[in-house]
């Protein structure tokens, strides 16, 4: 698993520091002093071959000289010594190393590669190199050279920048925000962002995860981990390099629109990660998510002593998509009785500038009890009439009482004391009330909570491999593309594009390729015979944008006009682009739809995330208008609708004045088909449909460009190699016949299976649960089951079995691969009353076949010695069974594939 041995690194019982320097101003000395100041509770050893003691701490010459085996080895030694130190630590049995030092280099023969090889030999995990270190307040470990140690709390920070991590610590110290862990990952030699997302997602001490990202190395692994984590807790990211240009100059409009940062934005959205633009927003997110749970809705009540600031808060709330809460009749009656007659009578609840602490308390108590709001924001503008500090104290006392009365779930309560001094901030922070310098920040904080709740709902949707009603001619389409590549071409011809679109049931105007003037006239006559008009376009593999050379002529109605226009187009193209290969002209029926909308749809290829679907407003000025949105495939109709809704042109798809609405889901269905085409034909590099005309009758492609090339495998594992997100693998659905004609239906697990799992576990005895989970299991929480069911099939798979006759769940088997996708760990559980009927054997064979298809080399598992039935089955399936050297009650089972 990607969390393999991470607990040993992030919550170690013993630590050794190798390379601490005697120099007062050095990284090694700073790390030593920080470990000492944090008062690490486990065993600690200092290793330095040149000094017997450093800073009053005794040192030994090597790891072998320690009288204990350190779980974590922290390395600040020179780069040249690091591979040897890791090898020595591995021989001693250390679980992993934190490499703070820099300078390991990259590439074959580098110290970087030597360190990796040494670690893999012993199954060690590595954090770093070139990093600030780790800070784990829960175990009093500060193995970093940061200036301060954060307090314990519920936020985890994963940062590619040591400076950002250090800055977060300083900010948190001022605001009273604590952390469950801070990890600076540096060059990610082994442990990466995805591994740490997995770890903190499962950490019960962590309420929310903050990320600072500069780039992502393994997009599929990141998407898998981020989606899994975001389903159970908020994940917030700030990414640098937002203004960076794309990795290459794109030849198509969709390629130009799909800039690098726009693709990251689409990836974060698909992963359910909340993206913020800068550190201030990240701090605000930390302030909110570290203190309160998400609300059940987005209706916000605002309590204020200043009408202006209250109205500003309402304006920002509406702008960000929130809803100003109404005040119920019962609550209004109570407010009328408690407040002076000059109060606002509506939301924002303005209790007037002379409001004192008791008036705030009376109004807040009513709003907290009112069911017409989902959260309350308390604003205060300091006056000379009432003490802002006294009001803050009263509010926090009331909040404490309210939360004590509603322990299972309490409404979020946020605050903004404008111009507050540090004492007021401390009062609010110590009471766990998120507080902000302005009303704008506070409203944004509320909307972060709302967005997280919406994200969880969105992530529960599982896009199918393709819509059930859509069956493309993928084989025929693939033949078109592979023939072009075999011919040495990088672009499809227009007629080939028409056949490609037909294979995926996407309508395109009648299109013909004419090599000379007379052939163009002949094709035009066919169009005239059907009552149409003609458009001519230059046909050249070297002229991508036809209008650049005047290569498009519209509204031709006679053969003579076609003859003259063809001659002009060919002559103009040869004059302006003498080096270009001119193949003739494209003859198309001209579609005149006065009320149709011009759209652009297509596919782009991103170097990090692979295939990207692009949608926006089309036409010749598409880049200038820049009204576009991106999404990672696969798509279903709902995801396609969401993609459309993120553009301004989506408003024009609805009816207005005398213009009928575009046919429902016609555009969305084309997006779904394009996403499926990207899965079926990875040889497609870029795809442009511009314009796609859309009106009440449907959609028609007018012009398209398709760039092709040999497929590039970006991601390991099965499924489309150019997709960062795996589709639901419907191809693994099975119907099995077991003993006594028992018929079973098996399919991959889905997020909506959570209630089914709960019901299934009621039919598993405590003894069998202990054999599966290695401990008595009295309760299965939502969070626990969510982690089992929320798969995206990239690194984890679970097959769930149902009795076809009753529809009841009868068993489950799962596999989770390691971080380098070489081995997987399995687990299996059956209904206790249905054991002995061949189901376990069938599920184990299925998961073995799946592992082989994924390219894994080994399947392993831990089995209690008393679980003799499982051990016997493993032996029959070819597993090697050995006692676990560290756990006498456990056997390690391993199958080489």
TrEMBL record:
Family matches, as InterPro entries: Acyl-CoA_Synth/Transferase, Acyl_CoA_acyltransferase, ATP_grasp_subdomain_1, CoA-bd, GNAT_dom, Ligase_CoA_dom, NAD(P)-bd_dom_sf, Succ_CoA_lig_flav_dom
Segments forming domain N-acetyltransferase: 744-897
Keywords: ATP-binding, Ligase, Nucleotide-binding, Tricarboxylic acid cycle
Classification via Pfam families: Acetyltransf_3 (PF13302), ATP-grasp_5 (PF13549), CoA_binding_2 (PF13380), Ligase_CoA_2 (PF19045), Succ_CoA_lig (PF13607)
Protein name: Acetyltransferase
Lineage: Bacteria, Pseudomonadati, Pseudomonadota, Alphaproteobacteria, Hyphomicrobiales
